[in-house]
């Protein structure tokens, strides 16, 4: 059951994860569409993750880290 209201640190962490994902994607010289193809998601989903509209689940985070060539902790730590 989600907390209501959501603690302030949750949206901040979402934004941080999205920013790290975007930076790693750009460093890997990938477009959102190319990254989406590598992890089996569409470009809109990648965009939503990067801009903290949605948060990837653990399985997606593992695939994303592998696709951009970084350890998982670089995305979430």
TrEMBL record:
<protein>
    <recommendedName>
        <fullName>HTH cro/C1-type domain-containing protein</fullName>
    </recommendedName>
</protein>
<dbReference type="InterPro" id="IPR010982">
    <property type="entry name" value="Lambda_DNA-bd_dom_sf"/>
</dbReference>
<dbReference type="InterPro" id="IPR001387">
    <property type="entry name" value="Cro/C1-type_HTH"/>
</dbReference>
<dbReference type="Pfam" id="PF13560">
    <property type="entry name" value="HTH_31"/>
</dbReference>
<feature type="domain" description="HTH cro/C1-type">
    <location>
        <begin position="21"/>
        <end position="75"/>
    </location>
</feature>
């Amino acid at each position: 059951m989600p907390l209501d209201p959501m603690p302030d640190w949750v949206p901040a962490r979402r934004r941080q994860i999205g920013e790290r994902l975007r930076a790693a994607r750009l460093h890997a010289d990938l477009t959102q569409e190319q990254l989406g193809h590598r992890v089996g998601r569409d470009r809109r989903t990648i965009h939503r993750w990067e801009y903290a509209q949605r948060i990837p689940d653990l399985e997606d985070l593992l695939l994303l880290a592998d696709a951009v060539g970084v350890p998982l902790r670089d995305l979430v730590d």
